[in-house]
Amino acid sequence: MRSNDAGFTLIELMIVVAIIALLAAIALPAYNSYRIRSAENACLAEATNYARFALSAIYNQDTPTAAILGACTSIDTATDIDTDITASPKSPGTRTTTCDMNTASCALN
Length: 109
Description:
Elements: H1 10-59, E1 72-75, E2 85-89, E3 97-100, E4 105-108
Antiparallel strand pairs: 1-2, 2-3, 3-4
């Protein structure tokens, strides 16, 4: 009687595991940098929206309220048009955002 052995050998399985490990080693650093950029850009967008809101309130001679935090851990409260505001992103972001209150334009530092 002849046995019909079908399946993968140990060498074939080890090669597949090595290929998966190589792909993971390439993908994980790219994913981590994507997470950092995403956190920083979300905080930039949030700070820009708050700067525009605060500038509008200042021009209407109102006192702007504090920012509602979502993507940032902190945003300075705008007091007047001559004071720039700074925002800090949530982890894993590291670069802060600075907003020029004369133009309500913001940039990452």
